[in-house]
């Protein structure tokens, strides 16, 4: 067992969360050692990465020094919480300037479950505004940068969580996923990211089914066993949800290392949103297929088992209407004017307001067509394999609206002439920027299926680019068994960014 002394942040970074928990239980380090090491590492790398939204170092020190321990599986392990979860004594900013910083009076339902694990949060991590973009590049705070190369994005919306885990600041961090926000930063940062199936992890009390059930909480981790152990403690009923989930009787952690059996896996890389995925994305899937075959699985190319273009339209329809509602709700609660929101958010909201109720209802009803297509596929195949990203992580600023167009776009928004934005090319550019490099992840959200990004590929430039597996309902255990088999066959945790 590695012995970790106070402030030994490099040694702490070599352990995953299960390893830190084991070291704490056997006395190889104390909770104070672990927290101080994580604080030291945060202070060392955050000036480069810009991943922290709110600092709670003293609170973490007090929690670590408390004589009454919390008794959870991860008791004393340092972590961060994404800045869209209500935590008592911390502000919830959701990546926007529209909110005035104010401390939450109480923990939300998910925070209570998360903190009951014994984890010690050092604060909150940055995210894209309301989670609406795949890259967090706040105009005032600045972008969240990738530990593998700070010129590139760490992905979003769980940006800071991905950056900090990859940089060895903490072994595991909270994330959530409404369109890929666990899997995208995991793929960008060379980490494992599991999105659980619909309803398995509580989200309340404010929303039992955010984004009509498309969004779910979870974590980003360096190891498969960390995500499995966290799923064991996070999965369960939510008193404010409309239904109770079916939780397996076998612990998810027991699935790690278990033989997945011989699986039939179909893969595809084509996308109606991005007709020309980057060669690295295609290589990631091709190499993964070869690795799977070497492990005894049956792997074959398949056509997309759903209407890719229709799914994108339906997803964006729902996404834009949600943006319109959220902006209106925030303005109602805060009195914020448009200057408090990013331009992309305002454009999405304007598009959402232009969508009729009938069109929105049709998009929601169309979800079943995608569910049915994927269900038919899973009758003959255990898993669907795709790239997680269609391109390597983009450069910071790559998706900026051209400077000359910004004042015209804002003027048109203020005058209610949002339709003219299409003539300026702003809308098409925004849609391409938002989904063109991440066209594969929304499928699992709309259909409620579990999915995981596995870090099996790095580009020639040294940037991570993961592959995604999508399972049938209740397939979390299968995803964990296969991911742990891949982790043993092609380990990734030893690959560390040179920060």
Q: Describe the global form.
A: globular
In helices, the fraction of residues equals 25-40%
Query: What amount of the residues lies in strands?
Result: 5-15%
Radius of gyration: 21 Å
Characterize this entry briefly:
With 499 residues, this protein is α+β, with helices and mostly antiparallel strands. Helices cover 39% and strands 13% of the residues.
Write up what this structure looks like.
The protein is of the alpha+beta class and 499 residues long. 39% of the residues lie in helices and 13% in strands. The chain has helices spanning 9-12, 17-25, 31-49, 57-65, 109-115, 159-166, 183-189, 224-234, 279-294, 308-334, 343-354, 357-380, 406-414, 421-424, 426-435, 442-447, 476-489; strands spanning 52-55, 78-82, 120-125, 137-138, 142-143, 145-146, 149-153, 172-177, 192-195, 216-221, 264-267, 298-301, 383-387, 451-454, 467-470. Helix 3 (31-49) runs antiparallel to helix 4 (57-65) and helix 10 packs across helix 12. The longest helix is centred in the middle third of the chain and has 27 residues, at 308-334. The protein starts with 8 loop residues before the first helix and ends in a 10-residue tail after the last helix.
